[in-house]
Write a structure and sequence with these properties.
- There is one protein chain.
- Helices cover 37% and strands 31% of the residues.
- By secondary structure, the protein is of the alpha+beta class.
- Strand 2 and strand 3 form a beta hairpin.
- The two termini are 16 Å apart.
- 22% of the residues are buried.
């Protein structure tokens, strides 16, 4: 299932890597695409939207939509 999140607070490549690692801890098979300029994170995962959003938020980033 493909899901898109608006994530604010990512300012560098390290931030992107942190988000990818957090998502892949929830689902090791997750495919993650990040567009930092648009504050957009797309995730192809079988995990629930809530679980994925929680993983991002626990890294310290604001998640909406």
């Amino acid at each position: 299932m493909n899901q898109t999140f608006t994530v604010t607070g990512m300012t560098c490549g390290h931030c992107e890597k942190s988000v990818v690692q957090a998502l892949q801890q929830v689902d090791p098979q997750a495919q993650v695409t990040i567009d930092r300029a648009q504050n957009r994170v797309q995730v192809e995962s079988s995990q629930s939207r809530e679980a994925l959003a929680k993983a991002i938020a626990e890294e310290g980033y604001a998640v909406t939509a």
